[in-house]
Amino acid sequence: QKQLVESGGGLVQAGGSLRLSCVASERAFSGYAMGWFRQAPGKEREFVAAIDWSGSNTYYPDFKKGRFTISRDSATNTVYLQMNSLKPEDTAVYHCAADSRSYLTSSSQNWSVYPYWGQGTQVTVSS
After folding, report:
1. Are 46 and 63 in contact (CB under 8 A)?
2. For the chain, percent helix, then strand, then coil, each to nearest 5?
3. What is the DSSP code (8-state) at residue 89?
4. Radius of gyration (Cα) for the chain, nearest Å?
5. Residue 69 φ then ψ, to 5°
6. Cβ pair 98, 32 in contact under 8 A
7. Range of lowest pLDDT (4-8, 22-26, 46-50, 84-88)
8. pLDDT above 80 (res 66)
9. CB 37 within 8 A of CB 47
10. CA 56 to chain CA mean position, Å
11. Residue 64: pLDDT above 70?
12. How far lies 27's CA from each of 3, 89, 94, in Å?
């Protein structure tokens, strides 16, 4: 019954912006930390961002910090990924994921700690 659904992907020119959404189907993910990962063809899955349930803590890879922002709306059980100044190398399928824990740790960058995943949304950045 636990389900995550991503949306907001699409085709955008370099320098543009997109806002991805991840909506929990029900309140099943209440209290869960959330993360965003991406995977491009021929490349390994990459950590993008994470946020704890309280919203007081976020976690980003250094090279993405400043362009990508993760946020949450507890009222709608939605996690967002705002992506600005997009580059062709940002092209990938973006997945949201839920951790059964409410907090972030150094392991939150690892996909293996997230037991629940959405099906993904394609982001394509053209030059």
Report:
1. no
2. 10, 45, 45
3. G
4. 13
5. -135, 125
6. yes
7. 22-26
8. yes
9. yes
10. 16
11. no
12. 10, 34, 22
